[in-house]
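Narrative summary of target 7.
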Amino acid sequence: MFDEDAVSSFVFSSEGAVQTFRHQWQAEQGELHECSTCYSCIDADEPPSQHWLQRAEQQRPQLSKQQQAVLDIIEARQIETFFFCDESAKDKLEQFMGETCVKALPELLRWMFHNGTLQLQFNLACYVNVQQQVLIFQSGMLLVQHHFDIEECVSVVYEMLMQRIQNYLLSSHNLDLDECSITRLRLQIKRNTEEESPALALPLPLRLRADTPRLSSEAQLSSLHAAYVKHQRECHGYLPSNMRANLYALQQCQTTKEVYVVPYHISETLQQQPNKNFLILNDVLGRFQRLHELPAPLPCRPQRSRSLQCRRCRAQFTRRSRLHIHQQLRCGQDFSVDSLHPDIVEIYEQCLPISRSVFQFACYGITKPKTVMRKGQFVPIECDWRSKSSVQVQHGPCVVISNTQHDSPCKYALRNLVNLY
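Modeled conformation, tokenized:
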């Protein structure tokens, strides 16, 4: 397992006619680990761009036809709210909450960066079952400006939510986390697309962000932009050696989720004046967006500091990016806790089911506002939760939230609507 305090290195080596790139990290105990996902070999006389073009073909997050169809429905119906549900997680808090925040939530947010999304905002709510009542803990809204920031943003929100749940349960109920369960998560997303904000600036990932002045004119940037696009299209990464510009690329390790900078094209220095340096920024599908000028080549991996502290709440951080996310969330001031009244049932009808082949746990897009009812206004109809036909009803499934607890993973229906517990 990768430790955030481990020291990573990104190594280029040549042996004979082969040039190799690999990623290693050294744990605090001194053990050296070889990354299984950051490794490539090219001919020794090829430019470094061939490493990243080769890896891009292997790692580019292409959507399947089914996933693209679901995304098209999400956009057509303007779905912004999603529920993750799993009743089997009653006594396994970390299995549902932890694994959903590690895998499913980042994957869904990454989906939302497709189809021209420049940035998005999200908040997360947990429905906590404790002592025959449902408490709803909700985070503040968080802006994600780059798709490489998704995992870290979700991680910070998850940690802050879990800390608040733990503190609340201990102070109000004298209970620990293992005495409650979380079986539903609600994710609300607002997207900003190219059509809505065509002039929106495209920032760097948080781990690489710094205030750097632009050194080249608009005309110079436009000229280099056009030259890069032309040679990339026609020559597949083989750029002329007299470009008078060094180009760098962003990569993300699929194992550790680290973001690092690598050389893409190094031009010859024709005069005493050094070449200018630019970072290539691509979208989530690897399509070129723009060039970002650098005052100097960035290190392969951003340096960590162990002395970062939030001035407001004194929380400690080892990464400036995590401190930035924490401060954007205003130290959790916008987090809230609410409770579901014992007599109230929330019903979300005609939901869009997302296949379990995409996410480990059941996921549903909310297409209509919730209906609030009192218990006794409807008669639950028990149906077989294993039967495929029991969830493929005429009007689509619905998510029902109440204080009622069940010992078996049965589904309940409101007339012909499925209660996905």
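Helices lie at 49-59, 65-76, 93-112, 150-173, 218-235, 320-328.
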